[in-house]
């Protein structure tokens, strides 16, 4: 059989029709999953299409409906483990539908987010899942006027364009603060990020600060680092913080990866982690399960947020009342790095 290359004429319904021995209309019904076609005929058409390498032109079909069966998923990063897990939830929930997720990344840059949204919305997707509630005016205007379901995920502390799914990071941070106070820690350090676009980390710290202040506990050292979270950054910053403020008895990290680096540093130095020095991170990354101690953390329910968001896009989620925010409840996990209550 003659091989086609990318410069030759594209395969058509007629090619599949001739290869399968059925009409073009029947081929169209099978490939669009429409109409009453016998299982035997359907199998013949699908086999012929696969053998030829035929891919239907969805753009032509989209011209009538003004929509393609793609869901735009916009996240700050794919190197940060938080977002691939949320994306996995989206993919799982869309698996039994005709919808397919397409991903764009913004690097926590609001202006890049505008450009990504402009390009993705120009393809007329069937919905948008986008991380966070903070966007530029132009991005909010594009989302509000897209005429499709828009779900902002992983945060509910704000005013969504359409719908929002996730945890309250402020309340999650507040819960960590109450747990620190309940375990008798008094001198707390906070190690976070100073990326302007990481609004969720900022809200965690604000909630933590409120809870500690209400308990009369002082934050005696606080530092924000540039760049991405990781073990090396956690080790480096923890060493600097303990050298600068040696009487700290607790360190809160806004991300598990920096927390794990801090834990490994303290473990190597022979510090009494979980006793005289408490530590907690955030996000409950399962890849840390092999550490010598389980880091105290918060399960932010990222995968479930992606699943619910996808169901909203697909029209299968039922809201309770008029509020189109779905607030998930985070779970605090004390692990081995905090004193027992």
| Rg over CA atoms | 25 Å
Distance between the termini: 74 Å
Form type:
elongated
Low-pLDDT runs of 5+ residues are 1-8
Assign the structural class, choosing from mainly alpha, mainly beta, alpha/beta, alpha+beta, or little secondary structure.
Answer: alpha/beta
| Spatial sequence of strands, sheet with the most strands | 2-1-3-4-5-11
Mean pLDDT: 90
Number of strands: 12
Strand coverage percent: 15-25%
Question: Which sheet architecture does the biggest sheet show?
Answer: 6 strands, parallel
Q: How many alpha or pi helices?
A: 12
**Fraction of residues in helix:** 40-55%
Q: What's the order of the H and E elements?
A: HHHHEHEHEHEEHEHEHEHEEHEE
Provide a quick synopsis of the model.
The protein has 341 residues and is an alpha/beta fold. The protein has helices at residues 13-20, 24-31, 39-52, 58-65, 82-94, 110-121, 137-144, 169-182, 199-214, 231-244, 256-268, 302-314, and strands at 70-75, 100-105, 127-131, 150-153, 163-166, 187-193, 218-225, 250-253, 278-280, 297-299, 325-327, 331-333. The strands form three sheets. It has a six-stranded parallel β-sheet. A four-stranded parallel β-sheet has the order 7-6-8-9, with helices on both faces. The chain has a two-stranded antiparallel ribbon with strand order 10-12.
